[in-house]
Design goal:
Blueprint (H helix, E strand, L loop, with lengths): L2 H19 L4 H6 L6 E5 L6 E6 L3 H18 L4 H17 L1 H12 L3 H21 L7 E3 L5 E9 L2 E5 L7 H13 L2 E5 L5 H17 L7 E3 L7 H5 L4 E7 L2 H13 L3 E5 L4 E5 L5 H13 L9 E7 L3 H14 L18 H16 L3 E4 L18 E4 L5 H4 L6 E7 L2 H9 L3 E2 L1 E5 L3 H8 L8 E4 L11 E2 L2 E2 L6 E2 L8 E9 L14
Parallel strand pairs: 5-6, 5-8, 6-7, 8-9, 10-11, 10-16, 11-14, 13-14, 16-17
Antiparallel strand pairs: 1-2, 3-4, 4-21, 12-13, 15-19, 18-20
Helix pairs in contact: 1-5, 1-8, 4-6, 4-7, 4-8, 5-6, 5-8, 6-7, 11-12
The structure holds 2-aminohexanedioic acid.
2-aminohexanedioic acid (UN1) binds next to loops.
């Protein structure tokens, strides 16, 4: 055995250990059978196989949705605060398994430790939020125009929520949806990315154990490990009342019309093409730190990753010099090693798309200032490590207007704030945005209706790393959905308007008489 083989075996063992600590029966899960389709979990750290896990077919997805609907019929009658108590217990369970889950996120996605732990923390945070929410699913009461009448709104769960999640946030985005859906009284069928079946298995084992301990109906949460072909079975299912899907704009363009055709509800969180404006008054030290974390962190594989910097012409050269200096020193490498800040891309396809994007940017007049090249990491010849790229662009060319899911940061110059805002908004996507400025007027304009058209608009921080307390999502081709905090819960519930007559008469609205 070579050192590389040893390391691969070590990764597989770590994955099995973490999975088993979370209560998954690893032996029976990985054994499979010749008749069952299998998903192969690869580690982007070295390209090795972590484990094979059995997948379900499209026909089985159909059964799983029916099972979740059966559970919904009783789960919806459990008082919301009691559902909240179960999510509270789940949050504590996640705390106990924070290290195990972070292990799996690292092994399956290639995140550095701190970011993997942060992702698990995001799950714990949303559970806390959901517990409070379980006592606050409030409706309004309005005055009635009729004497002796009252108008009010009540909110009710919609049914089964189909959660389709992406590889890059394999646990947090599921938890945003699931914690909120469950306290709202919905049940969940989860179709995770086929690249991250192990994190999904661990999470669902933990949740389903807590649900069983609290005698929740079987089927309140079901995992549908399946390849892409099984997606339509969930999306088209008449009992999947809500489809909450995270992924590419292309995926959303397929999902949205299918769900609309059957009058289902969608919560879509699709591509981002996030920009930061750096104004003449900006604190450049702060801007550089914010930009580098947002652009190079998670190897540029967040939907909130910073893809564009729009810098004032008076500071662009200084900013570029500082960024180039940091980019050249960024430690790219095995995310399990201390001090590494940038781990691998998810796969070779991602690396190829990054190279193609850089080539297209250069053809469009761009100049690569630093990065873009492959980085050799010892013991990981089959993995896709790359130095984040900094590319100066003379104009916002087509390639800049598309999302490439890799660490490329395009930098462009502006003269007036109007021009900067027009560039910032001049892309199809509308997820996250930011401005670095110490000029309050500029900050306010950026946050006003005439400013950024995104769902997330930040001042003096980068575009990524949102807290769970706010509503998360964006406009235009980002899909318009909102998940996580604030009143995103409304997307998981239906509203009923109630009119109550406590008088002895039957007056009609609008003064209509019908005698
Ligand atoms: C995503 O990339 O789909 O705001 C989610 C952030 C994280 C979530 C990202 N809290 O960057």
């Amino acid at each position: 055995m070579t050192a590389t083989d040893d390391r691969a075996t070590d990764l597989a063992m770590r994955a099995r250990r973490a999975l088993s600590n979370c209560g998954t029966d690893v032996e029976s899960t990985s054994s499979g059978s010749a008749h069952v389709p299998m998903l192969v979990s690869h580690s982007p750290i070295d390209g090795s196989i972590l484990m094979n896990v059995p997948a379900v077919t499209a026909a089985q997805v159909d059964d799983l949705v029916s099972r979740a609907h059966e559970a919904f019929l009783s789960w919806r009658q459990v008082p919301a605060p009691l559902r909240g108590q179960i999510i509270k217990a789940f949050g504590r369970r996640l705390e106990e398994h924070k290290e195990d889950l972070a292990d799996l996120v690292q092994l399956e996605v290639g995140k550095i430790r701190s970011e993997a732990l942060g992702e698990v923390q995001e799950m714990i945070d949303i559970c806390d939020f959901a517990v409070g929410l379980s006592r606050q699913l409030e409706g309004r009461t309005m005055p009635s125009e009729r004497p002796g009448h009252r108008l009010m709104e009540t909110w009710h769960p919609r049914g089964v929520v189909g959660v389709i999640s992406a590889f890059n946030f394999p646990v947090a985005v599921w938890a945003w949806n699931t914690a909120i859906a469950l306290v709202c009284g919905d049940t969940v069928v989860w179709k995770p990315s086929e690249r991250t079946p192990l994190t999904a298995l661990a999470c669902s084992t933990l949740l389903e154990a807590v649900l069983a301990e609290h005698s929740a109906p079987v089927g309140t949460h079901v995992l549908a490990l399946a390849d892409r072909d099984a997606g339509p079975a969930l999306v088209d299912h008449p009992l999947a009342a809500v489809i909450s899907a995270t992924g590419s704009e292309r995926m959303g363009a397929e999902v949205a019309p299918r769900v609309a055709a059957r009058f289902g509800h969608c919560i879509l969180e699709l591509g981002g093409n996030n920009a930061a404006i750096v104004a003449p008054s900006a604190d450049l030290d702060l801007a550089v730190r914010g930009i580098v974390f947002a652009a190079a962190g998670t190897a540029g594989q967040r939907c909130t990753s910073l893809r564009r910097v729009i810098a004032h012409s008076s500071i662009i050269d200084d900013l570029l010099r500082r960024l180039a200096d940091v980019y050249a020193r960024l430690r790219v490498g095995n995310p399990l090693d201390d001090g590494v800040l940038v781990g691998p891309l998810i796969d070779q396809g991602s690396f190829d798309r990054m190279q193609a994007a850089i080539a297209e940017a250069v053809t469009a007049g761009g100049t690569v200032i630093v990065g873009g090249e492959r980085v050799d990491v010892e013991g990981c010849p089959d993995a896709a490590y790359v130095r984040p790229a900094l590319v100066r662009m003379p104009v916002q060319a087509d390639i800049v207007r598309r999302e490439t899911f890799a660490p490329i940061l395009y930098v462009m110059a502006y003269e007036t704030l109007d021009e900067a805002v027009a560039l910032q908004n001049g892309v199809p996507q509308g997820l996250s945005s930011s401005i670095f400025t110490l000029d309050q007027r500029e900050a306010e304009v950026f946050m006003s209706s005439a400013g950024s058209d995104c769902g997330i608009v930040n001042v003096n921080i980068g575009t990524s790393g949102a807290e769970i307390g706010g509503a998360f999502g964006g406009e235009k081709t980002t899909g318009g959905g909102r998940e996580s905090g604030s009143d995103s819960w409304r997307g998981y519930m239906r509203r009923a308007t109630n009119t109550i007559n406590y008088s002895h008469d039957l007056p009609l609205a609008q003064g209509v008489s019908f005698e």
